[in-house]
């Protein structure tokens, strides 16, 4: 990739994003005070908070509407009492990832690509997360672990793409990201590195000049898949960050999860696709929710989701209609619905 002559983002406060990341809102009462909401109306679940603690960066909280329990961003991160619902269909490892974990830190589910757990933590805890029960302690990265993963990838010429996920890979320091990319680029049969991240949405300040410098010097193709569920998440700072990433030649795509009472209506999804495209991000996947223990209240049926896609197809060009998919254990790829 060619390095741009002029970068858009100013980096006069290079530690700002790290300060935000270290100063997350973790107490539900603090969030409700900020949003001017009464906890008595919708108390937080102590069980949910213990099992999967709330984590919300301030820039993401700032996008939420005050005094509105129906805010679509709040619903994604609030540890609701509905998480206590027990349903036998909802389990801790719905994608059977433990069966595709040949070594700590690496998942090899699909032909031609592997996933590395680049970071064991995220900047935000999305309540519908399919890895909310994942054993990150057993998959926490270290230099010794990384070398084993690199050896595994280097020994398999069929692997052409490496996906950096987690957790969120952009939660790592710039120096660590640069080292990882250098090591992966040195494996001759790797042609693409894909970065799955929510940081440009929840902490857009993460996209600094330093990070842009690291990403712009790559020899392999870099694809960044962001995770944005609602147009309200795309504030001016996020749009600025995404435009900057696009300006250095990154391929930007988005994956969403269709969530009950968050974005399960055609107007919402159409607006999201249009706003994504305005910042050079193509809608990629619309996921049906995974059957993760504690997330049954987010469920959207296949028929409902198919109807939403059909409505989108009548209102948008084909390239702005995401693929409706479901990830199912044991399948050679994600399952296309419809």
Structure description:
The protein is of the alpha/beta class and 338 residues long. The chain has one domain (16-86, 94-336): Aldolase class I (TIM Barrel, Alpha-Beta Barrel), CATH 3.20.20.70. Helices cover 31% and strands 14% of the residues. Strands 1-2-3-4-5-6-7-8-9 form a 9-stranded mixed sheet. Helix 6 links the parallel strand 2 and strand 3 (161-166). Helix 11 (266-278) packs across helix 12 (302-315). The chain starts with 15 loop residues before the first helix and ends with a strand.
Task: Kindly list the characteristics that best describe this protein.
TIM Barrel; 338 residues; 14% strand; 9-stranded mixed β-sheet; alpha/beta; globular; 31% helix
What would a concise description of this structure say?
Helix content is 31%, strand content 14%. It is α/β, with parallel strands linked by helices.
């Amino acid at each position: 990739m060619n390095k741009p002559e002029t970068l858009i983002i100013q980096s006069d406060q290079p530690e700002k994003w790290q300060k935000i990341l270290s100063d997350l809102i973790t107490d539900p009462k603090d969030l409700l005070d900020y949003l001017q909401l009464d906890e008595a109306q919708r108390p937080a679940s102590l069980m949910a908070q213990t099992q999967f603690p709330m984590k919300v960066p301030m820039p993401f909280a700032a996008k939420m509407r005050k005094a509105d329990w129906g805010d679509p961003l709040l619903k994604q991160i609030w540890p609701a009492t509905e998480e206590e619902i027990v349903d036998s269909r909802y389990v801790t490892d719905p994608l059977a990832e433990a069966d595709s974990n040949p070594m700590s830190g690496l998942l090899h589910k699909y032909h031609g690509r592997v996933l590395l757990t680049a970071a064991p933590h995220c900047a935000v805890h999305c309540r519908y997360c399919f890895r909310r029960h994942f054993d990150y302690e057993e998959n926490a990265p270290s230099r010794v672990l990384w070398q084993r993963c690199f050896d595994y990838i280097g020994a398999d010429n069929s692997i052409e793409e490496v996906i950096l996920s987690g957790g969120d890979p952009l939660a790592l320091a710039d120096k660590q990201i640069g080292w990882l990319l250098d090591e992966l680029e040195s494996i001759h049969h790797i042609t693409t590195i894909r970065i799955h991240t929510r940081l440009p949405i929840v902490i857009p300040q993460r996209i600094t000049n330093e990070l842009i410098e690291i990403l712009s010097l790559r020899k392999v193709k870099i694809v960044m898949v962001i995770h944005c569920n609602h147009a309200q998440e795309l504030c001016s700072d996020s749009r600025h960050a995404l435009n900057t990433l696009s300006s250095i030649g990154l391929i930007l795509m988005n994956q969403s999860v269709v969530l009950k009472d968050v974005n399960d209506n055609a107007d919402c999804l159409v607006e999201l696709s249009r706003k994504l495209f305005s910042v050079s991000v193509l809608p990629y996947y619309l996921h049906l929710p995974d059957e993760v223990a504690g997330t049954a209240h987010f469920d959207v049926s296949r028929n409902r989701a198919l109807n939403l896609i059909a409505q989108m197809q009548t209102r948008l060009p084909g390239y702005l209609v995401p693929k409706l998919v479901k990830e199912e254990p044991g399948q050679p790829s994600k399952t296309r619905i419809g």
